[in-house]
Amino acid sequence: MTYRFPDLEIYIRAPDVEQLADRLETVLSLSHWEQEGPLLRARIINESSQADVVLHDRAFKNYCSLWVTQNLTPWDTDLALAEWASNEFPALDVRCSQSGWSEQESLDERVKWYRVRAGAVDEVFWD
């Protein structure tokens, strides 16, 4: 049984952010996107909940962050979302954590991430 993450976050290397926003809007039936400084924000709304979908272009170096604040999506995990993004943009690197994050984790530890490219999943260190 797969644990469903409460929120999702992936990083995509240098995507066309407008094209990414358009594809997400179609898949998730989002409200229109609003620009908030460096962020693009839209909302998923269903009968009982809502969640923000946030795109932060160049969140880390040349990686765009895609964050869904509450998991009201068809994807259970960050990796499942990363695999979708890799299928949509096969030439780009997509990265995500291998598990959820907690505030108790040390920021000094080297942590492996998943890297998905053209549908292939590898384990990498970010640096």
Question: Notable features of this structure?
Answer:
alpha+beta; single chain; 8-stranded antiparallel β-sheet
Account of the 3D structure:
This protein is an alpha+beta fold and 127 residues long. Helix content is 18%, strand content 39%. It has 2 helices and 8 strands. The longest helix has 12 residues, at 17-28. The radius of gyration is 14 Å and the shape is globular.
Q: Any chance you could write out the topology, listing elements then pairs?
A:
Elements: E1 8-13, H1 17-28, E2 34-36, E3 39-45, E4 50-60, E5 63-68, H2 78-88, E6 94-97, E7 112-117, E8 120-125
Antiparallel strand pairs: 1-5, 1-6, 2-3, 3-4, 4-5, 6-7, 7-8
How do you describe this structure in short?
The protein is α+β, with helices and mostly antiparallel strands. The chain is 18% helix and 39% strand.
